[in-house]
Amino acid sequence: MDLLNWLVEPLQYGFLTRALLVTVAAAVVCSVLSCWLILMGWSLMGDAVSHAVLPGVALAYIAGIPFSIGAFVFGAGAVALIGAVRANSKLKADTAIGVVFTGLFAAGLAIISKTPSQIDLQHILFGNVLGVTTGELIQVLVLGALTLAVLLFKRRDLTVFAFDRVHAHAIGLGTRRLSALLLGLLALTVVVGLQAVGIILVVAMLITPGATAFLLTRSFDRMLLIAGSVTAAASVAGIYASYYLDIATGASVVLAQSVVFIIVFLFARRSGVVWQWRRRRASRLEAARPAGQLAGR
Which ranges does the record mark as transmembrane (predicted)? Predict the structure, then answer.
């Protein structure tokens, strides 16, 4: 099989083309938001929101309404509930997050266990990207475009807020509003990502891209570009791998992103493990040379 046929063959199937579009759209939106989550130390919040939407998805399925509505309502509600627990107790942020998201996730599992004939647990937890309809594709593209547009429009304010909240407040930025905006966009992004990889794996799409880009650059603008482009490419590779290797599509996409992270972690210039090992080894060899050899150089 030549390369052109290898690339074109999967695209002959409409369901796989829709899966490719949905996955790339979700990957780009998740990767851009992940850059802010990594800088602000909000990775656990992404994990919390993605798990907390489960009861909303389950109730939406039971009610016969789009699951994105239930997911967004419960995602936003989880964020508000975490904030309320933190504001009215002495618990630290990670504790409040853990209590809320595990409670809501358990509630979702309980709802599903009572209505097993109406809800496919596998599709909710791990996604059903190969079963995406044209209407769901349009929904993901619209929500993704809206989220991305707001992120890019408020990019400067959100970046100042992420790097230095005190400075952001001092120059007149509404830090509470920016925090609420970012958390609301997180809930919306989780809704976008759910369709592609499900509740469990969307966490990886909200963390891995930003972590990968962070290892490659210290410029935030370049970080956004790297995260989006690398993640989109890895997602396409994951779709093709799932087709030719006959493995779960969502898992294949996340694995492709994880492989990219491992490569960057090991071989990235300056920050990679191999690069640092070579630099330390060169320093030890230089220090071990006799003084006479050093003077004669």
Answer: 20-39, 59-83, 95-112, 124-153, 174-192, 198-216, 223-241, 247-268
Q: Is the pLDDT of residue 292 over 80?
A: no
Classify 246 in phi/psi space as left (phi over 0), alpha (psi -120 to 50) or beta: left
- Give the CA count within 13 Å in the CB-facing half-sphere of 156: 3
Ramachandran area for residue 198 (φ above 0: left; ψ -120 to 50: alpha; else beta): left
Question: What confidence score (pLDDT) does residue 116 get?
Answer: 61
SS3 137: helix
**DSSP assignment string, 171-184:** TT--HHHHHHHHHH
pLDDT tier, 222 (very low <50, low <70, confident <90, very high otherwise)? very high
Nearest to 209 by CA among 252, 152, 272, 259: 259
The share of the chain scoring above pLDDT 70, in percent, equals 94
Under a CB-based contact definition with an 8 Å cutoff, are residues 58 and 114 in contact? no
DSSP string covering 67-79: HHHHHHHHHHHHH
Q: Name the nearest CA neighbour of 71 among 80, 81, 84, 61.
A: 61
What phi and psi values does residue 222 have, to the nearest 5 degrees?
A: -65, -30
